[in-house]
Inverse folding.
């Protein structure tokens, strides 16, 4: 330690910030071994890649998948119907509650899921999913099925906001019965009238029949569920959701 700075003493160690020389940093995703930067798995040229999924190094370095999709080291061309687009069939509630179902799991007898227009200034004229959760401990879920393409990985996102209610509420996102994400429903006082985005969640790939996944012709039907549970005794919590999307990633 000199002048408050830690000194670089052993460049032969496995320090990714001083690998082989003081201050020589290994690229992101790599590791340092005996003073040399090394990829955690495969390497093509000077790049760390995953040969099982890299579209330009699919199965071997330089092997390009024309479709842009590489699955388990093999080029994969998804059926045209599912190569792009949203696997939710009414993810923005433009068709009301079509394709969605709802269930009250706890709380007062007036708890419900509904679809309607949000009168708030931030989302006037928008059709949204609405949770009305009454004390004590209101809880409900929304369910739909996703039309997903076999073998593709997807990213999932949606919007949520709470115009009213100050109970402690948590959302839970399930795909094919597996919990993908959970978090606090924003408090109205924290974010004003704004929507909070939840995005970047991983969904899939699915390969065929399993719990929460059924085969429907060339595509898969995958269970989706959003739970909201509140704890507390606020008279009611009014929570709105919209813009559900799950799209394939390359
Ligand atoms: Ca909408």
């Amino acid at each position: 330690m000199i002048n408050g700075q830690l000194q670089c003493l052993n460049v032969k160690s496995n320090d990714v910030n001083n690998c082989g020389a003081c201050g020589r940093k290994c690229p992101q995703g790599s590791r340092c071994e005996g003073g040399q930067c090394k990829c955690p798995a495969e390497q093509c040229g000077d790049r760390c890649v995953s040969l099982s999924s890299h579209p330009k190094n699919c199965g071997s370095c330089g092997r390009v998948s024309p479709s842009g999709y590489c699955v388990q080291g093999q080029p994969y061309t998804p059926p045209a119907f599912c190569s792009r687009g949203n696997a939710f069939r009414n993810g923005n509630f433009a068709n009301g509650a079509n394709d969605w179902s709802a269930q009250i799991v706890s709380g007062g007898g007036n708890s419900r899921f509904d679809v309607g227009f949000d009168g708030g200034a931030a989302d006037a004229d928008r059709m949204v999913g609405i949770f009305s959760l009454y004390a004590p401990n209101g809880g409900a879920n929304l369910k739909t099925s996703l039309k997903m393409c076999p073998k593709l990985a997807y990213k999932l996102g949606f919007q949520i906001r709470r115009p009213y209610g100050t109970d402690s509420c948590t959302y839970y996102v399930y795909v094919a019965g597996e919990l993908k994400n959970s978090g606090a429903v924003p408090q109205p006082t924290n974010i004003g009238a704004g929507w909070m985005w939840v995005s970047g969640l991983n969904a899939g790939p699915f390969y065929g029949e399993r719990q929460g996944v059924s085969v429907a012709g060339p595509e898969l039907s995958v269970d989706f569920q959003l739970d909201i549970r509140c704890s507390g005794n606020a008279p009611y919590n009014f929570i709105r959701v919209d813009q559900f999307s799950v799209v394939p990633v390359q």
Notes: Residues 43-77 form one domain. The CA atoms of residues 53 and 70 lie 5 Å apart. The first strand starts at residue 31 and ends at 33. The pocket of calcium ion is lined by residues 92-93, 126-128, 242 (CB under 6 Å).
